[in-house]
Specification:
heterodimer; A: 0% helix; B: four-stranded antiparallel sheet
Chain lengths: 112, 112
């Protein structure tokens, strides 16, 4: 069965970076784009971008251009999302997702 | 880019039927598939409808999806409402250029 398992919660200071991982299993990792979506407390879902695990090509939402980097390691079927220059309003649950399947989410808290 | 507009909240009694709408602001609703996600408090989203009207395995047939070109909207209909259906529901579609995901703002379903 398809599973997306994300890394654990993180607490970061403003200005720092965070890197969240998403390990895929149960399907051909390179066969589906991996998307990253975040949800601030009490808010809706916000698309951040995608990575094509086959080619490594990416497409980022304009809001995050210059601060987000999505990468992958096909040898271990894992996608990564790194967000830099963190601010307090980056506090959110970050999800990886592919067609029809979502990871469990990773809470990133940004606080001084 | 287009927007997807959902009602903020809907409520209905157990056993009844409820329909949640998702209206596309520009471009045809039929030009890109629509997905629907259910999100219970404290949990990751799960897919209840994909490709306009397809149900993933394990989703009961009480859930159905449709699109209406005349109103340029998609709808999620849940029949025989159960208290366990109480959740936030999000519609999602794609922008054809580079395939970013576009989310509706979410609808809180209360079953009382």
């Amino acid at each position: 069965q398809v599973q997306l398992v994300q890394s654990g919660a993180e607490v970061k200071k403003p200005g720092a970076s965070v890197k969240v991982s998403c390990k895929a299993s149960g399907y051909t990792f390179t066969g589906y784009y991996m998307h990253w979506v975040r949800q601030a407390p009490g808010q809706g879902l916000e698309w951040m971008g995608w990575i094509n695990p086959n080619s490594g090509g990416t497409n980022y939402a304009q809001k995050f251009q210059g601060r987000v980097t999505m990468t992958r390691d096909t040898s271990i079927s894992t996608a990564y999302m790194e967000l830099s220059r963190l601010r307090s309003d980056d506090t959110a649950v970050y999800y990886c997702a592919r067609a029809n399947y979502w990871g469990q989410g990773t809470l990133v808290t940004v606080s001084s | 880019n287009f927007m997807l507009t959902q009602p903020h909240s809907v409520s209905e009694s157990p056993g009844k039927t409820v329909t949640i709408s998702c209206t596309r602001s520009s471009g045809s609703i039929a030009s890109n598939y629509v997905q629907w996600y259910q999100q219970r408090p404290g949990s990751a989203p799960t897919t209840v409808i994909y490709e306009d009207n397809q149900r993933p395995s394990g989703v009961p047939d009480r859930f159905s999806g449709s699109i209406d070109s005349s109103s340029n909207s998609a709808s999620l209909t849940i029949s025989g409402l159960k208290t366990e259906d109480e959740a936030d529901y999000y519609c999602q579609s794609y922008d054809s250029s580079n395939h970013p995901w576009v989310f509706g703002g979410g609808t809180k379903l209360t079953v009382l």
